[in-house]
Write a structure and sequence with these properties.
The protein folds into 2 domains: about 160 residues; about 220 residues, Neurolysin, domain 3. It contains 20 helices and 3 strands.
Length: about 525
């Protein structure tokens, strides 16, 4: 049998990865359909369908000939252009993740998502820990085993770092610990100061609900369209579970949930998920179905949702736009509770609370840091997952001075741990830091961004994001992408200044290490 050339081996890899990525998109659509349209009695069937796709993907990547193709292509890597070299490096990284698991462990890991979603949706509102305790223990046990299996093969320091690498490739736990410790230290000072300053302000007016789901979704659709979501290549639904975005670049599905007494959580969930969808819809078409044409991991993905939610939609200009549309949709034209100033006060208000997805932006990172510390402790064996409720309650009381009265507003609120995506949470705050840095650069380079938002035109901002982030896919590392887009490494200065200006009335000046040298080994490709 003739030995393949490096170019032919690479060609085989490209065909194989196109199959794998198309299957991933199909599984994504099945998962979103389960949230929005599937009959309850179909859940078991859907679990088996998604698991079958995941196992078929695993088979396609784990066949011995794939490793042979990788070895041959890598031996002739000098003959590949820079884009193909990067694509090949990403293939090897993905292959290593997948082939670290034996078939039984791969199947157990694949089953966590379809089964965990159903368990979460069925029980999270009740707060009854006895109904989910054993499943959480199972999910963490599988995740720990996965991390241990991948650790050495990826060349990372710990099982937890291997789990983080699945979602934020190349990000090292030492970097997260360093940045989160500095951020936590700053927020422990900023939050009480902001609360004290806020106490002297005129109180906000309460909203005049109820707000029907139908009307909330009309407003949400208006805002998603203004941001630039392409409804010709996606859809937007109301659901009972966790807001999310999933699908494929040309079939993207976003969702949010509504509470009739307050439309703002639904609205900000909507613009957050629209930011995710805009990233997917803007990925480079010329590299579709290849790793290099895919997103750059969840830290960058979260930076795109937060560039919209935390940056663009926390400006005074956005509240001018929101007030106009909210008054129209809810039939409350001229209502002072829906004025730009009052809406700004309602949203941009520091009020430590229990639910992460409804937290104010100043306290949000404390929610993430807490989850990072807890899941890391469980994976490292320092905390039994069955003791999670008490550990959770102690941690949030320490960080925010509040204690949940039940597990629905505590450790059962998020879908992440039931579905086996331990290691995801750090991406939220890494993404928020990156979003602040992107927005500061974008508004400096394109000063028309904020005035145009007030007119309902997000194109100057989304155009900048598409040029510097979306269209680049995974052509470079996250570290390089941030440096190219902003001219500086990722640092907390812009994020902390984003907080300090509106909440403390001054630029951030406290001593803080904000520009750090890259840690060894925190890049890919």
């Amino acid at each position: 049998m003739a030995v393949l050339s490096a170019q032919n081996a690479y060609g085989e890899l490209k065909k194989r990865y196109a199959q794998i990525i198309k299957m991933e998109y199909g599984a994504n659509i099945l998962s979103k359909d389960a949230e929005t349209a599937m009959a309850p009695g179909s859940a078991k069937d859907r679990e088996e369908q998604i698991t079958a796709i995941k196992m078929a993907q695993h088979h396609l990547i784990s066949e011995p000939k794939v490793e042979e193709w990788l070895n041959i292509a890598e031996a002739g890597v000098s003959g590949l252009n820079p884009v193909d070299r990067r694509n090949l490096a990403l293939m090897r990284h993905h292959w290593t993740h997948e082939n670290a698991l034996d078939p039984a462990l791969a199947e157990a890991y694949a089953q966590l998502e379809p089964q965990g979603v159903g368990i979460h949706v069925a029980h999270y509102r009740s707060g009854d820990w006895s109904q989910v305790r054993d499943w959480y223990a199972h999910s963490f046990a599988v995740a720990r085993e996965v991390g241990q299996a991948k650790k050495d093969k990826l060349g990372v320091a710990s099982a937890y770092e291997a789990l983080v690498d699945r979602f934020s490739p190349g990000i090292r736990v030492a970097l997260i610990e360093r940045e989160f410790a500095a951020l936590s230290q700053a927020l422990r000072v900023m939050i009480p100061e902001a609360l004290e300053r806020q106490a002297f302000e005129t109180p906000s007016l309460p909203l005049k609900g109820p707000f029907s789901e139908e009307k909330q979704m009309e407003l949400n659709h208006r805002m998603a369209k203004a941001v630039g979501f392409d409804y010709n290549r996606g859809r937007f639904d109301a659901i009972k579970g966790h807001p999310s975005s999933n699908g494929s670049p040309d079939d993207n599905r976003i969702s949010t949930r509504c509470k009739e007494e307050d439309f703002l959580p639904s609205l900000f969930g909507a613009v957050h998920e629209t930011g995710h969808a805009m990233y997917e819809q803007g990925l480079p078409v010329q590299h579709r179905y290849q790793p290099v044409g895919n997103n750059l991991g969840m830290a960058i993905h979260e930076s795109q949702s937060m560039s919209i939610e935390y940056q663009a939609c926390m400006t005074g200009e956005f509240f001018e736009l929101l007030a106009k549309h909210a008054q129209e949709v809810f039939g409350q034209v001229g209502d002072p509770s829906l004025s730009p100033e009052n809406l700004y006060k309602l949203v941009c208000r520091v009020q430590p609370s229990f639910i992460r997805v409804e937290a104010d932006e100043l306290t949000y990172s404390m929610h993430v840091i807490m989850r990072f510390e807890l899941e890391k402790a469980i994976i490292e064996g320092r905390l039994d997952p069955k003791d999670l409720p008490e550990a959770w309650n102690d941690s949030i009381q320490s960080k925010l001075g509040i204690r949940p009265s039940n597990n629905a507003e505590g450790c059962m609120q998020d879908v992440h741990w039931p579905v086996g995506i331990q290691g995801y949470f750090p991406a939220y705050t890494l993404g928020a830091m990156t979003a602040a840095q992107f927005f500061a650069t974008a508004t400096r380079q394109r000063p028309e961004i904020k005035p145009e938002i007030a007119r309902g035109n997000f194109a100057p901002l989304t155009g900048w994001l598409n040029e510097h982030v979306h269209s680049r896919g995974s052509l470079v590392t996250a570290e390089q992408l941030i440096l190219d887009a902003t001219g500086e490494p990722l640092n907390a200065r812009h994020y902390l200044n984003h907080f300090s200006q509106p909440y403390l009335g001054r630029p951030y000046t406290a001593p803080q290490p904000v520009s750090v040298a890259p840690l060894p080994g925190n890049t890919l490709g």
